[in-house]
Amino acid sequence: MAAKQYVYRFGPDEHGVDCTEGGADDAWCLGGKGANLAEMARMGLPVPAGFTITCQTCVSYSEQGVWPAGSLDEIQAAITDLERRSQKRLGNPENPLLVSVRSGAPISMPGMMDTVLNVGLNPETVAGLATLTNNLRFAWDSYRRFIQMFSNVVLGIPLNLFEDALADAREQAGVASDAELKTEQLQALVVRYLEIFDQAISYQTRAYLETQTGSASFPTSATDQVLLAIQAVFASWDNERARLYRKQYNISDALGTAVNVQAMVFGNRGMHSATGVAFTRNPATGIHEPYGDYLINAQGEDVVAGIRNTCSISNLKNVPELAKPARELYQTLDVLEQHYRDMCDIEFTIECKKLWMLQTRIGKRSAQAALKIAVDMVQEGILTREEAILRLEPQQLDQVLHPHFDPSHQIAALAYGLNASPGAAVGEIVFSSDDAVARVKAGYKTILVRPETNPDDFCGMSVAEGILTSHGGKTSHAAVIARGMGTPCVCGAEALHIDIDNKLIRVAGTSIELHEGDVISIDGNSGAVVQGPLPLIESTMTPELIEVLRWADEIRLSPPSGKPAHVRANADTPADGALALKFGAEAIGLCRTEHMFLGERKEIIQTFIVNDSPHAQAQALKQLLAVQTDDFYHMLKIMNGRPVVIRLIDPPLHEFVDDPRMLALQLAALEGEGGHSEEIAAMQTRLRRIDSLSEVNPMLGLRGVRLSFVYPDLAHMQVRAIVEATARLVQEGFDPKPEIMIPLVSLLSEHVHMRRVIEELIATIEQQRGISLDIPIGTMIELPRACFIAGDIARYADFFCFGTNDLTQTSFGFSRDDAEGKFIPLYLQQGLMDTNPFEHIDEVVLNLVEMAHEQGIDVNPHIHTGVCGEHGGDPASIVQFFNEAQLDYVSCSPYRVPVARLAAAQAVLQRAGTFTAEKS
Ligand code: PEP
Ligand code: MG
């Protein structure tokens, strides 16, 4: 493409011959919508003529505040060209050209930016349109829509002023829907709308209008209208919800939006006309059938806004007037899917039985649908397994692994709506986006309840557990956004009368009323809305997920090049171990033994820590040995034949004792009440002891391997428990595979000494039992110093496991807990950091891992290496660990294991360059 071309045309010329300039590959320049309109036009699909103003024009206009040199001339020329191609003229009462002005960023941001339809209408052209179409009502319906949309989008006048006037008009006319309003009523509404414009327009906007058009009245020049609408769409790139959406989905602010100016086609020209949204496959379930909604005698915004209840696309063929365009629509859906080799979503309009395509893009889908579509498309021969694996978003698998309601539990639903986004949610009712944000901040779970949502609700939608609406179909705003975010959503639950002003829901046919703060449960799989909290149960692995992960395992374990990419789990209890196995973990990469001291065992470890009596301590150790041996026995048994990396005690001991502040309060109370002096003395001793344990800096104090030197009995007890449990299992005929890991090493001597102690203990028990055991001993590399001496440590280590949580904390000098909710969000917002280093591995920390790994391998080629920090469950970090640091495995929480298996396969495919260029 030419470097400085601002405008590209698409669609037919005046002879019906395609004169499109761009194509599907030009999304960075033409935006997704513009690129795909161009592609559809090239494919010979019926696309109304138009042109696209590039994203780069938007960027330049936004930066400079003026049109880039030459761009305005190009736009004027494109308008003239469009007039010639469509044989109509902007503002010409005899034969008026009306256009839509629509946003379209390179990466889809549904509903976040603005669109203006019916641009070009004024008192003269509305009359011309009526004559030309022989449909006075349609012309005035379009005119009132235009004033409403233009006033809101371009001039910033609140939409509800117009909606209230429209509701008044319906009430006065005694009709239920806008479609029933008569011409005279629409004409009166236009007068009312222009009054609203006059009363509600701000002083600044009036001044802006004057500088742009020479008049402060509602713009009547069609060309002025078009230019103002284009500028408004540019500005909408920077509105708050668009910025928030980009942040949420990691989309660069520097991309800008393209603007598509296109000849209008009308779905509101009577009962032979319709408009709708469709998917080539069901985006909630993945079932291969056309899916979507339409409305007869309506314009596109009516469908997505959710203000009218829509009909299912599968019924369109049964409407006698629309049977032919319906057939064409279904064929077009097939053509598009074959062409893009993916599930597509489209917007279409039927004007007087003629089908027009207004948009297509790769359709957003639930995780369940993504998996089914991947499996089906491989079976249908559309995709290879590798392509299907690369297309899936590992992060999205979380949705399938979402909890759901127990199907055997009898539920008495208050109402059923549409099952718009899968998963189940429980929370208290909030009626506004702001309330959702406030309650979630205060620590509550919420369900956002709205008659329908619009883009202004985005903040509340993104924090709520679930979303419930009483209006709108499965392609309404609420449904599309919820699916994208993986938030359970039930929409169109019409039996619920939602009174936003009084924060009240009335359930039709009953006397039930629900108020703000009442708890409800919603099921995005069945559409049920239930009063009160329902118990949530764990998810199961669906057949499609199992199949996709089977392919992923084949790929990652037998890679075309490089090492296999293994996935382990972090699991501390036999129950976690079972879960890890269920999700496909190959081994346990980290068993944090300190978690075994919690619950009812806390008292035992407390006795060991705070009691000065050697006898009481010895008793406590004995009890701990018994329970730990039992824990390891069950853990190793459940993981029979698979490695279990057991880490010796790591956290500072004060984590196991009471909060000294609480204890001080209790002591003061006891003293105040004149309690027993013995009791008081015991409590004082306890408090002194706990105070002496408190770490000034818990991240760097007496913890990790250092504990094993200061409290050697504790480490000995743990090693003994591991070895005893192993010996017992071996004697019972099992195949236990424990590996002992020494945490937080910073000196070579720490590791060497601990290794010797462990080896001696193993040897003693081997001798006592008369068996021989093979228990590898390794270290956790989680301090920068350890990375620098990794070569030395490797001489005495069978494995390295990188603790990237501590490595990140110690490299940055701040801790995960300090950072959360404090400065990291601020840094991200201010651009001081691109990503949260505790979620996605930081480059410098990754360099430390790479360096330590290289040194380790150099000295000890047999050393086995992995990562067990939180980053081991982050798909992007996983790819880096395997492909840049060359580690053998990642280890993550059981629920992340499927995500990690998929990401590991993607790493292997990317490493091997197994990208098959996608045909488009
Ligand atoms: C780590 O530091 O990365 C790690 C896994 O250990 P923990 O989170 O228990 O400190
Ligand atoms: Mg650690």
- Domain count: the total is 5
Specify the structural class: alpha/beta
Give the number of helices: 35
The number of E-state strands comes to: 33
Ligands present: phosphoenolpyruvate, magnesium ion
CATH architecture field of the largest domain: Alpha-Beta Barrel
CATH superfamily of the largest domain: Phosphoenolpyruvate-binding domains
Which spans of ≥5 residues are poorly predicted at pLDDT below 50?
Answer: 915-920
CATH topology of the largest domain: TIM Barrel
Radius of gyration: 33 Å
Task: State the helicity in percent bands.
Answer: 40-55%
Mean pLDDT: 91
Q: Can you offer a commentary on this structure?
A:
With 920 residues, the protein is of the alpha/beta class. The chain has 5 domains: 7-265, Dna Ligase, domain 1 (2-Layer Sandwich); 266-365, ATP-grasp fold, B domain (D-amino Acid Aminotransferase, Chain A, domain 1, 2-Layer Sandwich), CATH 3.30.470.20; 403-537, Phosphohistidine domain (Glucose Oxidase, domain 1); 559-652 and 695-912, TIM Barrel (Alpha-Beta Barrel); 662-694. It has 35 helices and 33 strands. The strands form 7 sheets. The protein has an 8-stranded mixed beta sheet with strand order 14-24-23-16-17-18-19-15. The protein has an 8-stranded parallel beta barrel with strand order 26-27-28-29-30-31-32-33, surrounded by 6 helices. Helix 21 (602-610) packs antiparallel against helix 22. The chain starts with 6 loop residues before the first strand and ends in a 9-residue tail after the last helix. The model is unreliable at 915-920 (pLDDT under 50). The chain binds phosphoenolpyruvate and magnesium ion. Magnesium ion binds at residues 782, 803, 805-806.
